[in-house]
Specification:
heterodimer; A: about 500 residues; mainly alpha; B: about 350 residues; ten-stranded mixed β-sheet; 10 strands
Chain lengths: ~500, ~350
């Protein structure tokens, strides 16, 4: 077979592979559509979805605005860190809240009750505060990557020309980064819009968001048809937002020097604040009960759950990498790009129970790996992968003109340049997967992960042991992220 | 090595690591498994996670049952008991469920209306007084406990009657659970409704300033209590068995109201869609053996369904609360109006 024939064949299968990606990602909906009576939807009072949609929107908007603001402050502080050796630690601390189970984030916050005059402010404020602590680190690291990648040259030029900081940010950086910032905000908005546990734990009196309405439809009414419809409305809402927002673009940079002067300075150790707020709450209980907690732990199940958690996290990371490579292989593809940019996976309950509907027994760990992948691929694509693929489009076009096949382009043009981003995104997926208990609780049967073990201990009064288990959980999460980050050096030589 | 080769090595290494870890996990889990059991019938049990968890009664019960049944028991779990029937709905066909364990009396109506159940013959059993009138051929009680507020003695005001829950001394000191997402939460709501009837809204409104938080789950509410954020948490009376027995701490006490307390009774039942129905019947009978009831009592921290099993245990010394038969469904209108 000649190279031209091979390339023709590739060109024929690429559109089908694109459809395959889309079908894979929407598979939970497809599974459900075969299991529910869609005609029931005609009986639904659509106005009843307006209030949850509104509540979700307000909660997610407030959380996003504040998270972006605090994330920006953390980004400025991150730039002020002098020691290069300190930066990986700071990065880990910024990501740490993402592996702590929501229940401990909530309990950690409650430790600060004396600051609120003895009465913790349950309600929208508490939910927003928790979201800020959870995700402002992600924003800080995204801004770091985005600004260094996109605007490093402009920053240097602005400094040489002595442009005043305020004018520089308003007239230069904002127009340059607007699209990217919108994309980042949409990513953070999606996380908050679909947040389930924290609104449930911290809203005090029940604020009916869409995620909670989906839960109620299942738990109280037993109406899966309604739950699926609400999930579709949720996905459609994010899809519509993604269509109206500007297209993001920020190219990846291999070497990232620190930004010496952005016109603002903040104390560098501010980057440790979100982690500290949560850890102090956790340590407050832990220090007085470490002995009791250790006595309650059963070592064999600790080992088993740690091994299972690592296997699941690693599996999720590897599958993400393969899917990102799959997407890279069929890129550029405008329709797929638009789909991926707007698509939001259904909630944990819908995705998890869809896995149960798949009539394959004894593959629960694999089902969980796929379920976790279905949830985080669209988010990570939108947040990280899309930009790097767009930035390589011209090189791909040039390689095609020169007669290169698609597989050669993927392996010799795209992969060497996109590897850092793809691996970092896969590492984040692994980190999130290691902290998951919502999907794991639905999909797994007798397999036990660290988050499920924590839940077991909590349900059996062993609160101290549950607190103690956060140590291996955070270590596994950060370790998995570090594994994929460390692989960047290996694969890029 | 070029970038292609490095990618291939990384992917191979990653996939190998995943499989190696899963293989190692399998070795850890199956190191004591009798290989001959793979050829035997499988009994599928559906229950809630903490019943089946390593520190719950499930593993010990299953191990004991498997010794004599020439079968393998497989457990399917849901996060909380309220989702048992939703999970059962999805379990028809080849992955069908043979036994369901852990739904309470407030879910019986749903069980009767939406599912069909096998009838079981359980004779010559002396039920505990609390479960006697709830036992039926379809729904077999396995454990029970009264519900009340648990607190730590500290010399401060302690309520003696339900109306004391609105006293201003208790401002912000009560941890409740949401009746939508928590079985104890639903029990509390139905309790108040039963006692206050058409005054429920007024009572809940008066009590509201004393409510520190309405948690989605029992574990979060109990976590608040353990972290000393609240003085009183709505829970099972049998929570005391953990504090008194395992922690040897008698400062933990339960409120004892003269009006009486609701009781949660947990059931086992066999859906007609079962595949190993005889084995399922054997398993339910097995749960009612005194030895099994002991395991359930000590590991699930609940009273046994059979009378006398708790004799000479810490459970026998727990306070006796006046029982109150509380009926109720999922009509949460009064709750919604206040919270």
């Amino acid at each position: 077979m000649t190279g031209i024939e091979s390339s023709d064949r590739e060109s024929r299968i690429r559109p089908w592979l694109s459809v395959g990606i889309a079908l894979f990602l929407i598979s939970p909906f497809l599974v459900w559509l075969t299991a529910i009576d869609v005609s029931e939807w005609t009986r639904m009072d659509f106005l009843s979805a307006v209030s949850p949609l509104g509540n979700s929107f307000v909660q997610a908007s407030l959380s996003t605005i504040l998270t972006m603001a605090v994330g920006f402050a953390l980004f400025i502080a991150f730039q002020s860190l002098k020691s290069e050796r300190m930066k990986p630690w700071a990065e880990s601390v910024l990501l740490m809240p993402n592996v702590i189970p929501p229940l401990f984030i909530a309990l950690g916050l409650l430790t600060w009750t004396p600051l609120f005059g003895g009465a913790f402010p349950f309600g929208m404020g508490a939910v927003v505060m928790a979201h800020v602590l959870l995700n402002s680190g992600l924003v800080a690291l995204s801004l770091d990557r985005m600004i260094k990648g996109r605007a490093m040259g402009v920053i240097e030029a602005g400094r040489v020309m002595g442009v005043p900081p305020v004018m520089f940010w308003r007239a230069v950086l904002w127009p340059l980064l607007r699209g990217d910032l919108m994309s980042l905000a949409l990513f953070i908005f999606s996380l908050h819009f679909t947040s389930f546990s924290l609104p449930l734990l911290l809203s005090g009196e029940r604020a009916l968001t869409l995620e909670i309405a989906i839960f109620d439809a299942i738990r109280i009414q037993g109406r899966w048809d309604l739950a699926v419809l609400l999930a579709l409305i949720q996905s459609a809402f994010i899809f519509a937002l993604a269509w109206v927002l500007p297209r993001p673009f920020w190219p990846e940079m291999g070497h990232r020097p620190g930004i010496a002067d952005l016109g603002f300075r903040l104390p560098p150790y501010l980057v440790f604040l979100p982690g500290l707020v949560l850890v102090m709450g956790w340590l407050h209980g832990l220090l007085v009960s470490v002995v009791t907690g250790w006595g309650q732990l059963v070592v064999p199940e600790l080992i088993e759950s740690t091994v299972t958690t690592i296997a699941i996290g690693l599996g999720v990371g590897i599958i993400h990498l393969l899917i990102f490579l799959w997407i890279a292989y069929v890129s550029p593809n405008f329709r797929l790009e638009k789909f991926l940019h707007g698509y939001l996976a259904p909630s944990a309950a819908i995705t998890g129970f869809a896995m149960i509907l798949i009539p394959v027994d004894d593959w629960e760990i694999l089902k969980l790996v796929f379920a976790l992948t279905l949830i985080s691929v669209p988010l990570l694509y939108r947040w990280m992968v899309h930009s790097v693929l767009v930035s390589l489009e011209q090189q791909v076009a040039l390689a095609r003109t020169l007669g290169a096949g698609w597989m050669m382009i993927l392996l010799d043009v795209v992969w060497p340049q996109a590897a850092p981003t793809l691996l970092r995104a896969s590492g984040l997926a692994a980190l999130w997967a290691s902290g998951d208990f919502a999907l794991s609780g639905i999909v797994l049967n007798d397999e036990i992960t660290l988050p499920l073990l924590i839940e077991d201990y909590l349900n059996n009064y062993h609160f101290e042991a549950a607190q103690l288990l956060l140590i291996p959980l955070v270590a596994v999460g950060v370790g998995l992220y570090g594994f994929f980050r460390g692989a960047i050096r290996f694969v890029t030589g | 090595m070029n970038a292609r080769a490095r990618l291939a090595v990384f992917l191979l290494l990653g996939v190998s690591c995943v499989f190696a870890l899963l293989f190692y996990r399998q070795l850890l889990v199956n190191k004591d498994v009798d290989r001959s059991r793979f050829e035997v019938p499988k009994l599928r049990v559906l229950t809630y996670a903490s019943f089946a968890s390593r520190s719950g009664p499930g593993p010990e019960l299953i191990a004991a049952f498997e010794q004599d049944c020439n079968c393998k028991v497989e457990v399917t779990t849901v996060n909380e008991a309220g989702l048992l029937f939703e999970r059962l709905k999805l379990s028809t066909g080849p992955s069908g469920i043979d036994v369901v364990i852990g739904f309470d009396q407030l879910m019986l109506e749903n069980a009767r209306e939406n599912f069909s159940w096998h009838e079981l013959e359980v004779e010559d059993l002396t039920w505990a007084e609390a479960v006697e009138d709830l036992a039926s051929p379809q729904f077999i009680p396995v454990d029970w406990s009264p519900l009340t507020f648990i607190y730590r003695e500290d010399g401060r005001f302690v309520p003696k009657a339900i109306n004391d829950l609105v006293r201003p001394e208790l401002k912000g000191q009560l941890a409740l659970q949401d009746p939508r997402s928590s079985s104890p939460g639903l029990q509390f709501y139905n309790w108040i409704k039963h006692l206050k009837e058409d005054q429920t809204v007024e009572f809940l409104t008066a009590m509201k300033p004393n409510v520190h938080s309405v948690s989605p789950s029992w574990s979060f509410a109990y976590g608040l209590f353990r972290k000393k954020q609240v003085r009183f948490v709505f829970s099972h009376l049998t929570s005391l068995a953990f504090h008194w027995g395992e922690e040897n701490d008698r400062k933990y006490q339960a409120l004892n109201f003269k009006e009486g307390h609701p009781q949660q009774v947990e059931f086992a039942a066999i859906p007609v869609s079962c595949r190993e129905c005889d084995l399922a019947a054997d398993f339910v009978q097995f749960l009612l053996q005194p030895e099994s009831q002991q395991i359930i009592m000590h590991k699930n921290y609940m009273f046994p369904a059979l009378s006398g099993v708790e004799k000479d245990s810490i459970f026998e010394s727990l306070p006796k609360l006046k029982p109150l038969r509380v009926e109720g469904g999922k009509d949460l209108n009064d709750w919604d109006r206040v919270f």
